[in-house]
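Let us practice reading a record.
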Amino acid sequence: MKKEYKRPVLFTISALVIIFLVFFSLKIYNYYNLEYPNWEGKSKDHNWEVVFKKNEDAPKEFSGEILWIGDKDKTDKTYIESITIMKDNKTLLDSS
């Protein structure tokens, strides 16, 4: 390849690499700051389901839902005894 053609090709490749790096860096940043965390879990007996995510109105706060997914005939005798929220094996909230 002639020397006069090497510089434009290297410049173009370098510009494309930089554009891709910036694009994917922004994607990762948006993923962790806008969508993360979105935790889902189930109880040991698989009767309860929990969805816990960032609050859109206050980004530093979280909100969640606890849903009964068990047998509908047992709802009269069902109650929540305690709630424990853990992250990375550390307890964030324990109601017991």
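A brief commentary: The longest helix spans residues 3-35.
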